[in-house]
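A student in our group prepared the protein record below, which I am reviewing. This is what I was given:
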Amino acid sequence: MSADLSPVIAATAQWLVRAYPAAGGALSAALAETQARQAATVAARLLHPTPVDVALLAIVGPGGSARLDWLVGADADATEGAEHGWRTWVDETVASWAACLLADPALAAAAVAALAEEDADADGVCAPAFRRLTDPDAHDRRAASLLRHPDLLAPVADLHRDGLAERLRTGPAAPAKAA
């Protein structure tokens, strides 16, 4: 299923690292991108847990980054044009949930645990390791200091924080049963 979510995960992670760039060179950029990708992966899988959810996302589209760009003060002229077409694949809710996870490693651990539980229930497979998200070391924190800063992330995280809390509290919606 994550392969079907890959355009949304990639675009949302890209948006996060552009909005909250790493400082310190190529290694820092790679570490920050890994953390953003892990957060976007967990958020996307929580938000779109079933093949039907993923199919609906493919039909209606994720919505794009316009509101997020406005929130973080991105220059509108710099976000238009063919070279920025990837922005149409950014999912605002995935970005918001990923921001919540990046700002709070304990919340990220709870989210990864929820995925592991659902994966085990579905087919006996546990969620992959997300160590850089759930247990960042000093290098990870330094590389993603802006990407993990709760105050800087707050405008984005606050957009859909309640939905993430509800999702983690209640689990995925149960599929409808045939009568």
User: Anything to note?
Assistant: The CA atoms of residues 114 and 169 lie 10 Å apart.
